[in-house]
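One-letter codes give the sequence; backbone shape is given numerically. An example follows:

. . .
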Amino acid sequence: YRLNIGANAMVAWSVPDTRLDEVAKELVAMESISHCYERHGLDDYNLFTMIHGRDKKDVEDIINTAVLSLGLKRYRVYWSERELKKTSMLYAEEDD
C-alpha cells in the first residue's frame, strides 16, 4: 500500500473505552492505516491512527468510511506537510 502515496494524515479519534479494542482492530485491518496507538492527554481523543492515500481526497474517503462503518463521531485530522526524517526503530535490551 505504500506505492503512489501523496497524502498522509494522523487522525485522533474519541472512542469510548468500552469500544477501544473493537475499534482499534477494525481500523488496523484497513490497508491504508499503518499505525494505531492508544494515547491519552489530548482532551478525550484516545486512539491515534496514521492514514495514507493517493491524495487528500483519498485519505478523506478512508476517514469517512471509518466514521460510517464504526459510528465514530468525534475525531481530529492532522495533515502531514512534509517528512522530516525516516528511520527504523532502535530497541535496547535490558540488562539483568
